[in-house]
Specification:
alpha+beta, 5-stranded mixed beta sheet, 3-stranded antiparallel beta sheet, 15 helices, disordered C terminus, EC 2.7.7.41, phosphatidate cytidylyltransferase activity, Tam41
């Protein structure tokens, strides 16, 4: 099964990709520079930074080639060579190496490089939820090679997002409720949502892109035995019995199960995961425990990745990027009264 995504082979994106080494297993573009968000016009969109993620099979070789083609993209770490850059990428933060505020073809872009192996690990197990969380939301898929393991992981990640969201929602809810929950998973516990991000970010992502979310999730919802999906009415009903919740908890990614276990199991008791999840399934606060588990994953990966970003971007670019984020947050805050008056 190929992941349902917004495929774009437009000349604009091909021109950007042509400026990088071509050994890429997956490439996608995301964010407010790619998708129009609520309250922005095309002129504002064209000024927004374009965000990309490139998955590569061999980071050392890829960075070697990219340093030859695009040396100026890198911070002072370029002096340490491709092996050190790859080591920084793989061993710290969320296993992504970002070059930011890069001018390409008249636009400013940011691109993250992750190994295909690390990406599959995050998609399957939610080790950091950093790139996996971005892929819960609509993206422009630019390159997707014939790696069956990667394709299966992309679909598994979407199924996990649905399962986790079911556990945090009531018995009956709307499609929009579900998509808001899914879109918010990777922001739970993200300190940047307190300082540096527009607070209405999640609502903005979903508001104008319901149809894009349907493209991603409709087949999964139709095939899921634990939900009654009424696409014509945009409504869903999920099994909230302890048995139903236990099945959902057992289907969660491994890292999230481990975080839930750590939250619930007293130190020294060392019960097995199945026994603990059976207890959580019967808890009226089951959804809140799942939410805490997700927050703990996101919090640790965001902090370490942001600290790594200072080294990979350099101090000047970090300061410039942060000030732009704060400005977006301020503009979002100023827009809020007018939005509430309209609703």
């Amino acid at each position: 099964m190929t992941i349902p995504a917004l495929n774009s082979t437009g000349v604009f994106y091909r021109r950007i990709l042509s400026q990088f080494p071509q050994d890429i297993s997956l490439a996608f573009a995301y964010g407010s520079g790619v998708f129009k968000q609520h309250g922005t016009n095309q002129g504002q969109m064209d000024k927004n930074m374009l965000d990309f993620v490139f998955a590569v099979d061999d980071p050392v070789t890829w960075h070697t080639m990219n340093l030859l083609q695009n040396r100026k993209h890198y911070s002072i770490l370029k002096l340490l060579g491709p092996r050190t850059i790859s080591s920084v990428q793989n061993e710290h933060g969320a296993s992504v190496y970002y070059n930011t505020l890069v001018p390409v073809d008249g636009r400013i872009i940011k691109y993250g490089v992750i190994s295909t192996e690390s990406l599959i690990d995050d998609l399957m197990h939610w080790k950091t939820l950093y790139v996996a969380g971005r892929l819960h939301k609509p993206v422009k898929m630019l390159v997707e090679n014939e790696n069956g393991k990667l394709r299966a992981a992309l679909v598994a990640n979407l199924k996990s997002a649905v399962t986790a969201s079911f556990l945090m929602l009531p018995e009956s809810f709307t499609e929009e409720d579900l998509f808001l929950q899914i879109a918010g998973l990777s922001y739970a516990g993200d300190f940047r949502m307190v300082i540096g991000e527009d607070k209405s970010k999640v609502a903005n992502i979903v508001k104008d892109h319901i149809q894009h979310f349907r493209i991603l999730y409709s087949n999964i919802l139709r095939d899921c035995p634990q939900v009654v999906y009424k696409p014509q009415q945009g409504k869903l009903e999920v099994d909230k019995s302890p048995e139903g919740q236990f099945i959902q908890l057992m289907a969660l990614p491994r890292t999230l199960q481990q975080r839930i276990t750590k939250l619930v199991d007293p130190p020294g008791k060392n019960r097995d995961v199945e026994e603990i999840l059976l207890q959580v399934a019967q808890d009226p606060d089951c959804g809140a425990v799942v939410q805490q588990g997700i927050s703990s994953i996101v919090k640790s990966s965001c902090i370490t990745q942001s600290l790594k970003g200072i080294a990979t971007a350099g101090l000047w670019k970090t300061g410039s990027y942060s000030s732009k984020k704060l400005m977006k947050m301020w503009k979002g805050w100023r827009r809020k009264p007018s939005v509430s008056q309209m609703s």
